[in-house]
Design brief:
Distance between the termini: 41 Å
Order of helices and strands: EEHEEEEHHEH
Number of helices: 4
CATH superfamily of the domain at 41-129: Beta Polymerase, domain 2
Largest sheet: 5 strands, mixed
Radius of gyration: 20 Å
CATH topology of the domain at 41-129: Beta Polymerase, domain 2
CATH class of the domain at 41-129: Alpha Beta
Structural class: alpha+beta
Shape: elongated
Helix content: 25-40%
Strand order of the largest sheet: 5-6-4-3-7
Protein backbone atom coordinates (compact mmCIF):
# COMPACT_ATOMS: atom_id res chain seq x y z
CA UNK A 1 0.00 0.00 0.00
CA UNK A 2 1.30 3.44 -0.86
CA UNK A 3 1.90 6.07 1.80
CA UNK A 4 -0.81 8.71 1.86
CA UNK A 5 -0.52 12.03 3.63
CA UNK A 6 -3.51 13.88 5.10
CA UNK A 7 -3.70 17.23 6.87
CA UNK A 8 -6.59 17.26 9.30
CA UNK A 9 -7.60 19.30 12.32
CA UNK A 10 -8.38 17.29 15.43
CA UNK A 11 -11.97 17.17 16.62
CA UNK A 12 -13.56 16.38 19.97
CA UNK A 13 -14.44 12.70 20.33
CA UNK A 14 -15.96 11.98 23.73
CA UNK A 15 -13.34 12.87 26.34
CA UNK A 16 -10.55 12.84 23.76
CA UNK A 17 -9.62 14.37 20.44
CA UNK A 18 -9.30 12.51 17.20
CA UNK A 19 -8.61 12.72 13.49
CA UNK A 20 -11.20 11.52 10.98
CA UNK A 21 -9.86 9.62 7.99
CA UNK A 22 -11.56 8.06 4.95
CA UNK A 23 -13.47 4.83 5.64
CA UNK A 24 -11.20 3.00 3.19
CA UNK A 25 -8.42 3.27 5.79
CA UNK A 26 -10.40 1.36 8.42
CA UNK A 27 -7.99 -1.16 9.99
CA UNK A 28 -4.90 0.47 8.48
CA UNK A 29 -1.89 1.44 10.58
CA UNK A 30 -1.54 5.22 10.70
CA UNK A 31 1.02 7.63 12.08
CA UNK A 32 -0.18 10.96 13.50
CA UNK A 33 2.28 13.86 13.71
CA UNK A 34 1.34 17.07 15.53
CA UNK A 35 2.18 19.97 13.19
CA UNK A 36 0.99 22.84 15.43
CA UNK A 37 0.05 22.42 19.08
CA UNK A 38 -3.09 24.25 20.17
CA UNK A 39 -2.58 27.62 21.82
CA UNK A 40 -3.16 27.98 25.55
CA UNK A 41 -3.56 31.75 25.52
CA UNK A 42 -4.02 32.37 29.25
CA UNK A 43 -1.05 30.22 30.23
CA UNK A 44 1.20 31.52 27.45
CA UNK A 45 0.53 35.19 28.17
CA UNK A 46 0.94 34.86 31.93
CA UNK A 47 4.23 32.99 31.36
CA UNK A 48 5.47 35.78 29.06
CA UNK A 49 4.49 38.39 31.66
CA UNK A 50 5.73 36.39 34.68
CA UNK A 51 8.50 38.82 35.66
CA UNK A 52 6.16 41.83 35.23
CA UNK A 53 3.04 40.54 37.01
CA UNK A 54 3.52 42.87 40.00
CA UNK A 55 2.78 45.80 37.67
CA UNK A 56 -0.23 44.19 35.93
CA UNK A 57 -3.77 45.33 36.69
CA UNK A 58 -5.57 43.57 33.84
CA UNK A 59 -4.92 41.37 30.78
CA UNK A 60 -7.21 41.44 27.73
CA UNK A 61 -7.27 39.77 24.32
CA UNK A 62 -8.02 42.49 21.77
CA UNK A 63 -7.48 40.56 18.55
CA UNK A 64 -7.14 36.89 17.67
CA UNK A 65 -6.65 35.93 14.05
CA UNK A 66 -5.33 32.57 12.90
CA UNK A 67 -2.41 31.97 15.27
CA UNK A 68 -1.62 35.64 16.03
CA UNK A 69 -2.92 36.95 19.33
CA UNK A 70 -2.84 40.62 20.33
CA UNK A 71 -3.18 41.39 24.01
CA UNK A 72 -3.59 44.65 25.91
CA UNK A 73 -2.12 44.61 29.39
CA UNK A 74 -3.08 47.44 31.70
CA UNK A 75 -0.40 48.22 34.26
CA UNK A 76 0.22 50.57 37.15
CA UNK A 77 3.12 52.47 35.52
CA UNK A 78 4.82 50.17 33.03
CA UNK A 79 4.79 50.88 29.28
CA UNK A 80 6.23 48.18 27.05
CA UNK A 81 5.73 46.37 23.72
CA UNK A 82 6.51 42.64 23.64
CA UNK A 83 6.52 40.26 20.68
CA UNK A 84 6.95 36.63 21.70
CA UNK A 85 6.05 33.75 19.40
CA UNK A 86 2.38 34.09 18.39
CA UNK A 87 1.78 36.96 20.81
CA UNK A 88 1.92 40.74 20.45
CA UNK A 89 1.50 42.32 23.87
CA UNK A 90 1.13 46.02 24.60
CA UNK A 91 1.57 46.97 28.24
CA UNK A 92 0.10 50.39 28.95
CA UNK A 93 -0.42 52.30 32.23
CA UNK A 94 -4.05 52.72 33.28
CA UNK A 95 -3.89 56.53 33.22
CA UNK A 96 -2.56 56.50 29.64
CA UNK A 97 -5.36 54.13 28.58
CA UNK A 98 -7.95 56.49 30.08
CA UNK A 99 -6.48 59.48 28.22
CA UNK A 100 -6.15 57.52 24.97
CA UNK A 101 -9.76 56.31 25.03
CA UNK A 102 -10.93 59.93 24.89
CA UNK A 103 -8.88 60.86 21.81
CA UNK A 104 -8.09 57.62 19.97
CA UNK A 105 -10.87 55.64 18.27
CA UNK A 106 -8.55 52.64 17.83
CA UNK A 107 -8.00 52.34 21.60
CA UNK A 108 -11.74 52.70 22.19
CA UNK A 109 -12.37 49.91 19.67
CA UNK A 110 -9.85 47.65 21.40
CA UNK A 111 -11.66 48.12 24.70
CA UNK A 112 -14.99 47.39 23.01
CA UNK A 113 -13.76 44.09 21.53
CA UNK A 114 -11.55 43.03 24.45
CA UNK A 115 -12.04 39.74 26.27
CA UNK A 116 -10.76 39.50 29.81
CA UNK A 117 -8.09 37.08 30.92
CA UNK A 118 -7.47 38.92 34.18
CA UNK A 119 -9.63 41.56 35.91
CA UNK A 120 -12.96 41.54 34.07
CA UNK A 121 -14.22 44.25 36.45
CA UNK A 122 -11.64 46.80 35.25
CA UNK A 123 -12.76 46.21 31.66
CA UNK A 124 -16.40 46.62 32.70
CA UNK A 125 -15.56 49.84 34.59
CA UNK A 126 -13.65 51.32 31.62
CA UNK A 127 -16.55 50.56 29.28
CA UNK A 128 -19.01 52.09 31.72
CA UNK A 129 -16.90 55.19 32.44
CA UNK A 130 -16.39 55.97 28.74
CA UNK A 131 -19.77 54.70 27.46
CA UNK A 132 -18.24 51.94 25.34
CA UNK A 133 -20.59 49.17 24.28
CA UNK A 134 -19.09 45.68 24.59
CA UNK A 135 -18.71 44.06 21.19
CA UNK A 136 -16.85 40.92 22.23
CA UNK A 137 -19.97 38.72 22.07
CA UNK A 138 -20.39 39.49 18.38
CA UNK A 139 -18.63 37.20 15.97
CA UNK A 140 -15.46 38.57 14.48
CA UNK A 141 -13.97 36.89 11.44
CA UNK A 142 -11.09 34.48 12.11
CA UNK A 143 -11.37 34.91 15.87
CA UNK A 144 -10.03 32.06 17.97
CA UNK A 145 -12.76 30.64 20.14
CA UNK A 146 -10.48 29.19 22.82
CA UNK A 147 -8.55 32.33 23.67
Amino acid sequence: MENKEFYRRTIKLGNSSGVLLPKTLLGAEVKVIVVNSPLNVKKDITNILESLLEEVIGIYIVKAEKRKIEALVISTNLKKHIIAGNYIIDIVPLELIKRSIKINAQVKSKIAYARAILNKKLLFDLRKEFSIRSLNQMSRPNQLSHA
